[in-house]
Design brief:
Elements: E1 6-9, H1 16-26, E2 31-34, H2 41-50, E3 57-61, H3 64-78, H4 85-108, E4 112-116, H5 121-131
Parallel strand pairs: 1-2, 3-4
Helix pairs in contact: 3-4
């Protein structure tokens, strides 16, 4: 199964390099998937200078409307104070401003894999595997 071949790490910016080094040393044949990283060009540059060159950057694309609905739905069970409409709007603007240059950079280098996140989970997963060459 594809998931058995993926090591997933969600880490802070400061410890990303160390976490990747440790994970890769322990599992050299595994794919390392970093969730939400890099968010800014400076992070991308430092990561590739100090740790390794990313094979792919995976972007799940959906409309701001879909993202807002999902975050508001998450708010019903997450208990997160920042899952409210005003904060979500600000986070979407921040995401767009900070992440667009990163995505454009990897697109120019043919290392960006974009997957529509408007579909159901099964379709998204299948399209992700195809985009990464895992199917």
């Amino acid at each position: 199964h594809v998931l058995e071949n993926i090591t997933k790490a969600v880490v802070s910016t400061q410890s990303t390099g160390e976490a990747v080094d440790k994970s890769h040393a322990a599992n050299p044949d595994k794919i390392i998937l970093l969730d939400g990283f890099p968010r800014e060009m400076e992070q991308a540059k430092k990561f590739e200078e100090k740790v390794c060159k990313a094979t792919y950057v995976l972007s799940f694309d959906c409309s701001n409307e879909t993202m807002t609905k999902r975050l508001l739905s998450r708010a019903q069970t997450s208990g997160r104070a920042d899952d409210n409409i005003e904060t979500i709007k600000k986070r979407l603007v921040t995401f767009e401003n900070a992440t667009s240059p990163v995505l454009q950079h990897y697109l120019k280098e043919n290392r960006l894999v974009c997957v529509s996140a408007e579909d159901d989970k099964g379709v998204i997963f299948s399209n992700t595997c195809k985009g990464l060459g895992l199917q």
